[in-house]
Specification:
CATH class of the largest domain: Alpha Beta
Shape: globular
Structural class: alpha/beta
Helix content: 40-55%
CATH superfamily of the largest domain: Spore Coat Polysaccharide Biosynthesis Protein SpsA, Chain A
Number of helices: 20
Strand content: 5-15%
């Protein structure tokens, strides 16, 4: 029986990852599916060997190359096939009954529910007031749609293209996904399972670095409109005040440089007042010890400037941001002339010769978790030049040379047989999508002639033409998407231009 859910954990190699995995292994019920750890470091030792002793029955490790948490989560869920995908952060600790409660959450979910959020507790000190950093972390307990513990139906993730990888940090990418899922795929509800999210240690400048997230707010605005905060239930923060204080600081410097001392003095006083107000707002609820006061004074002087700088950069950079498409869930390839050199009516596996770069192109998709397939017309079966067993042997040889395919379909009919599978008919494309549970609009078919592109369009998929000597000039002119080679075709797909 297929597992109910996979568990995806992006990580940058924190020691807390082992604690998380050991908690999952020691739970009252086994994890209801594979645990996929996505190593988001650019390099480093092999995590699979380091984690082999944590006690999980099905633990898989994949690398994402350091692309950030959104990309790591996408790679993780694309390497799964379960109907649900559950995300955990690498610094949380699930309750002992987390797996059992997760199964209950998912099994009780009616069809209109596309996502289920876990409950988060953040332990704060009992013997003193929490620091500014601790209070910020405590906000995770009431945050909406955070992926510290979140489950989504896999088909909902695929339909919206997963996480938007233009969000480079663990901030707003969860709210963006939640808004897209609830707009088109169903509701997100609160489940019963629980995790603990400890407060991570932080240095003096952690709150200053967090201001980079202001740029992400402008991507949210470009994608979801000015009311996105209300719909995502996200607090407004102090960006307006920060801009006022930063403007006062800039005016003070400019007026002083041009000899307008009175203006400079007034602007400097406004900046000092704004800084003092921010510092006190952060100091007053905290422990007010010497280290905390020092941190608040230093960072409060810089936060308005940093917040405004990142806001301006985000407003400019994301002013024309298009909707996120993400990667397709499936890329189908024509065989002869596209992946391997065309040998008419070939029934001999020894004659299979890959097109230069075809293996590398396929591997670029596979490593990101994008499924790949083969769809090929083989009319030689209908005319007696081939038999079905020969087609299978040649297809097996293609897979031996180029790597495994998630789905393979061929049409044995001739052009006058009136079948629905021979390209440009859509049958093979639709059947391949159905076999993997992929919506055709999330599928791309790469081929070298017009019938490949036409089959994709007829099935509701996207066609991408890679011309060869067999491609007619008219086919190139009429194709919506053309790439000069397989490498460039994959470049287009990975860039979202499919």
């Amino acid at each position: 029986m297929q597992p109910l859910t996979s568990v995806v954990v992006p990580t940058i190699g924190r020691p807390s990852l082992r604690t998380l995995l050991q908690a999952l292994a020691a739970g009252t019920q086994p994890v209801p599916g594979p645990v996929v750890v996505v190593d988001d470091r650019r390099d480093g030792p092999d995590l699979a060997s380091e984690l082999a002793d944590v006690g999980l029955e099905d633990l898989r490790v994949v690398r994402s190359g350091g692309g950030g948490p959104a990309r790591a989560r996408n790679i993780g869920w694309r390497h799964t096939s379960t109907p649900w995908v559950s995300f955990l952060d690498d610094d949380v600790v699930p309750d002992p009954d987390w797996s059992a409660a997760l199964v209950g959450d998912l099994e009780r979910a009616p069809a209109p529910v596309a996502g289920i959020q876990g409950r988060v507790r953040v332990p704060l000190p009992d013997d003193r007031r929490p620091t500014d950093w601790e209070r910020g972390t405590a906000g995770l307990a009431t945050a909406t749609w955070i992926t510290a513990d979140m489950s989504y139906r896999r088909d909902a993730l695929a339909a919206v293209g997963g996480f938007d990888e233009r969000f480079p940090r663990a901030f707003r990418e969860d709210a963006d996904l939640g808004l897209r899922v609830t707009a088109s795929r169903g509701s997100i509800v609160m489940g019963e399972r629980r995790i603990t999210h400890p407060v991570r240690p932080a240095d003096d400048w952690a709150s200053l670095r967090q201001q980079a997230g202001n740029a992400d707010d402008f991507l949210m605005r470009a994608l979801h409109g000015s009311d996105w905060r209300e719909r995502a239930r996200a607090p407004r923060g102090r960006r307006g005040r920060h801009a006022t204080v930063a403007s006062a600081a800039g005016l003070a410097v400019g007026a002083l440089a041009t000899g307008h001392r009175r203006t400079a003095s007034a602007a400097a006083a406004a900046w000092l007042a704004g800084t003092a107000e921010l510092a006190w707002a952060r100091i007053a609820p905290g422990p007010r010890d010497r280290d905390e006061v020092r941190r608040m004074l230093l960072t409060s002087a810089a936060i308005p400037l940093a917040a405004t700088w990142h806001s301006l950069g985000g407003a400019w950079r994301h002013r024309h941001a298009p909707p996120w498409r993400g990667l397709p869930d499936l890329v189908l390839f024509d065989r002869d002339g596209t992946l391997v050199h065309d040998v008419p009516y070939n029934g001999d596996p020894e004659l299979v010769a890959p097109v230069a770069g075809s293996a590398a192109a396929l591997d670029r998709l596979r490593v990101l978790g994008v499924r790949v397939g083969l769809v090929t017309n083989q009319s030689g079966v209908a005319t007696g030049r081939l038999d079905v067993e020969q087609v299978h042997r040649v297809n097996d040889r293609v897979a031996d040379l180029l790597g495994p395919f998630d789905v393979v379909r061929f049409c044995p009919h001739g052009p006058d047989d009136g079948c629905t599978c021979r390209k440009p008919a859509p049958g093979m494309v639709k059947d391949a999508c159905a076999a993997l549970g992929v919506e055709p609009e999330r599928c791309v078919l790469v081929g070298d002639i017009g019938s490949d592109v036409e089959a994709a369009a007829a099935a509701g998929a996207r066609g991408l033409l890679v011309p060869t000597g067999a491609t007619r000039a008219e086919e190139v002119r009429t194709a919506d998407r053309v790439a000069p080679g397989l490498a460039e075709a994959v470049d287009r797909i990975l860039a979202g231009r499919w």
